[in-house]
Amino acid sequence: MSVLRSMPDASLIDVFRASPEFARPLHVFAQQLMRGPSSFTEQERELIAAYVSSLNHCEFCRASHIEVGRHYGTPDDLIDDLMKGIHNAPIDERIKPVLSYVRMLTLAPGRVTKSDVTALYDAGWDDTAVSHAALVCAYFSFMNRWVDGLGIEADPAVVKMAGEMLHQRGYGAVIELLDRAGKLNRP
Questions:
Q1: Which segments of the chain have a pLDDT < 70?
Q2: In what helix (H) or strand (E) does residue 126 lie, and over which residues does it extend?
Q3: Whole-angstrom distance, CA of residue 175 vs CA of residue 12
Q4: What pTM does this model have?
Q5: Can you spell out the DSSP letters for 20-54?
Q6: Phi and psi at residue 91, in whole multiples of 5°?
Q7: What domains appear along the chain, each with residue ranges and CATH number?
Q8: Is the dihedral of CA 107, 110, 113, 117 positive or negative?
Q9: Which alpha helices (H) appear in the chain, and where do they start and end?
Q10: pLDDT value at position 135?
Q11: Could you say which DSSP state residue 89 is in?
């Protein structure tokens, strides 16, 4: 379901298919960011995605990336624990400053300070990690606003399918869907 008059029953994939000139490059970027080389594991990047989406109150993205995380072995209730407080959550200490950083970057980007970043270095992360944390945060904040701005709801069946698809084939799966749809629409 969406708020678009021309597509009131649209799913997120329908929205992507209607705007392939935007959706395709965004997913090419996402594939590289979320599945390419990084200081973070794929599981850690999906955790950041689910956490940022939770902070932004985007239920579709929150549920979808919790589902992806489940396939990597992340406990279902970890995001709820993080939302209650990062420092008491049952998670590796090394990732806590990363989550604190993306929390600040999500909720009050103008208040991020050098000490927020220094905490990542102190935990053993490198420049690539700092950059990737900011990029994952920014990408999902962007996508959260696109999804919520169009009224896309978190249908449990779609969330389950999306979680499995993203885990198995990464964000390239969306690119493949868009490319197939494009070929079908050509004369």
A1: 183-187
A2: none
A3: 13
A4: 0.94
A5: HHHHHHHHHHHHHHHHSS-SS-HHHHHHHHHHHHH
A6: -145, 155
A7: 12-185 (1.20.1290.10)
A8: positive
A9: 12-18, 20-35, 42-55, 59-72, 78-84, 96-107, 114-122, 127-149, 156-169, 172-185
A10: 98
A11: S
